[in-house]
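I need you to check the entry underneath: sequence plus fold tokens. Let me know what the token row says about the fold.

>
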Amino acid sequence: FSCWNGDRRMEAEHGENFLKVKETTSVLPFQAIWEGRQQLPEDYWKELVRAPLILIAVGSIGAYFAHPYMQAGAALARSSGLSPGGILDPIFLEFN
């Protein structure tokens, strides 16, 4: 509904100019390219090889592989008695 409403408002505001732009685009990703209404530039891959995107990809993959270690660390913290419900609770509860 929001795409339709946005298109309706843009057409009312910009008229024929918006319809020209609408003919070359699509709501679905890559549909206009697939149908030949748009073309990717020859150097489109340069958009994907940027430091922030590489950093996010490396960080995500690193977090994925480090997940078992993160879970083990969380289990140790939970079982240390430093948090309520840990295995050392009976010892600490005796002193309270």
